[in-house]
Write a structure and sequence with these properties.
Helix content is about 35%, strand content about 30%. The protein is an alpha/beta fold. The protein has two domains: about 220 residues, P-loop containing nucleotide triphosphate hydrolases (Rossmann fold), CATH 3.40.50; about 70 residues, Alpha-Beta Plaits (2-Layer Sandwich), CATH 3.30.70.100. A hairpin with a 3-residue loop joins strand 12 and strand 13. It starts with a strand and ends in a 7-residue tail after the last helix. Bound molecules: adenosine-5'-triphosphate. The site of adenosine-5'-triphosphate has 11 residues, from helix 1. InterPro entries: AAA+_ATPase (IPR003593), ABC_transporter-like_ATP-bd (IPR003439), ABC_transporter-like_CS (IPR017871), P-loop_NTPase (IPR027417). This is Export ABC transporter ATP-binding protein. It comes from Paenibacillus sambharensis. Keywords: ATP-binding, Nucleotide-binding.
C-alpha cells in the first residue's frame, strides 16, 4: 500500500488551478523528488500534505490516515522542513530544537536525548549555545532541519532546503537526507535544481502548471526522453576511414562530424564500445585529445515535455 497517497487533489486560487487533479502514490522508504519550475505547484502540494493548507477537492492520506479527517495522526508522522526558516533568532540552537520537541509532546530525558541527537545529526552540536542571528545561512537551514526531525517522523518533507546556501552546507544537507532515509524515513523533497534531485532521489515526479507531467525512476525517465547517451570524441586530425569504420560499429546509432576534428556519436543501449572506438582511432593514426560522455538528463526531459527550460521557470 502507498505510504502517501494523493487522489485527484485540487487547489484553486480564484480562477487559477495551482494543483490540478493530482494523483500520486509514494511508497514507504522512498526519497521522492518533486521537481518543477517556480509556480509549478510544489509548495502548494506539500502544504496540503502537511495539513497547512486545505485542498479544494480530492483526498490525501499518510500511512493510511486521511489528512483532512485525522490531522493529529498525520502530523505525528510528518516532519516538515519549510522553505522559509521557522526558527527563533533569540533562542539558542539547543533551545530552538527543544521548543519544537515540547510542541511534539516530548519531556524530560527523552526530550534531552532527542535534542542531542538532532543537533548531532545536523552537525550543530558544537554550536548548540549559539544563536541563529550569528549563524550562516547554511547553519540556519540545518537548524531548521534539526527542529523538523527531532520527533523522528516517518515522513520528512523538505521544501527546497538548499536554496541559496554555501556548498559545504548543501552537501551536509544532501548527506543528511540520505542518512535519514537509511534510518527509515520516507523523504519527499522539492527542488528546481535537477542535479540535486537526480543525485538523491529514488523516484522523481515533474510538475508543471499544477499537473504531474512525468513520473518514474531515473531509468524510466531516461527512456521517456527517448534520447541516447552521446560520446564526444576530439582527435588531433581527421580520417574518413576512421569515421566510416566507427559509423559501422553496432553501438553507434548516429554520427555527426563537428568543427575541430570532433565527432559526436549517439550510443544505442547495450554492449561495450569504448575499447573498439579507441582501437579504430589508433589504427588510423589518430591521437585522442578529448573524450566526453553526455547523458540525457531531467532538464532535457522537461524541455522535451514543455518546450521550456526548467531554469527559465
Ligand atoms: N496564497 C496564494 N494566493 C494566490 N495564488 C497562490 C498562492 N499560493 C500559491 N499561489 C499560486 O499557485 C501556483 C503554484 O505556487 P507554488 O508556490 O505551489 O509553486 P512552487 O512550484 O512551489 O514554486 P516555488 O518553486 O516558487 O516555490 C503559482 O501560480 C502561485 O502564484
Amino acid at each position: 500500500m502507498a505510504f502517501v497517497q494523493f487522489e485527484e487533489v485540487v487547489k484553486t486560487y480564484g480562477t487559477a488551478m495551482s494543483v490540478n487533479h493530482l494523483t500520486l502514490s509514494i511508497r514507504e522508504g522512498e526519497v521522492f523528488g518533486l521537481l518543477g519550475p517556480n509556480g509549478a505547484g510544489k509548495s502548494t502540494t506539500i502544504h496540503m500534505l502537511a495539513g497547512l493548507l486545505k485542498s479544494d477537492g480530492g483526498t490525501i492520506s499518510v500511512d493510511g490516515y486521511n489528512v483532512a479527517k485525522r490531522p493529529l495522526e498525520v502530523k505525528r508522522r510528518i516532519g516538515l522542513v519549510p522553505q522559509e526558516l521557522a526558527i527563533y533568532e533569540h533562542f539558542t540552537a539547543r533551545e530552538n530544537v527543544a521548543f519544537f520537541g515540547r510542541l511534539y509532546g516530548l519531556r524530560g530525558r527523552e526530550l534531552k536525548e532527542r535534542v542531542e541527537e538532532a543537533l548531532d545529526f545536523t552537525g550543530l552540536l558544537s554550536h548548540d549555545n549559539g544563536r541563529p542571528s550569528a549563524f550562516s545561512g547554511g547553519m540556519k537551514r540545518r537548524l531548521n532541519i534539526a527542529c523538523a526531525i527531532m520527533h523522528r517522523p516517518k515522513l520528512i518533507i523538505m521544501d527546497e532546503p538548499t536554496v541559496g546556501i554555501d556548498p559545504q552546507s548543501r552537501n551536509h544537507i544532501l548527506e543528511s537526507v540520505r542518512a535519514l532515509n537509511r534510518l527509515g524515513s520516507t523523504i519527499i523533497y522539492t527542488s528546481h535544481y535537477m542535479e540535486e534531485v537526480e543525485a538523491i532521489s529514488t523516484r522523481v515526479g515533474i510538475m508543471d502548471g499544477g499537473r504531474l507531467i512525468a513520473l518514474g525512476d531515473k531509468e524510466e525517465l531516461r527512456r521517456l526522453t527517448g534520447q541516447e547517451s552521446k560520446l564526444i570524441v576530439q582527435t588531433d586530425h581527421s580520417s574518413e576511414e576512421a569515421v566510416a569504420e566507427i559509423r559501422r560499429h553496432p553501438r553507434v546509432s548516429s554520427l555527426r562530424e563537428l568543427e575541430g576534428h570532433t565527432l559526436e556519436l549517439g550510443l544505442s543501449e547495450a554492449g561495450t564500445y569504448l575499447q573498439d572506438i579507441l582501437f579504430i582511432l589508433g589504427k588510423h593514426g589518430l591521437a585522442l585529445l578529448k573524450l566526453t560522455r553526455e547523458e540525457p538528463n531531467l532538464e532535457s526531459l522537461f524541455l522535451q515535455l514543455t518546450g521550456r527550460s526548467l531554469r527559465d521557470g
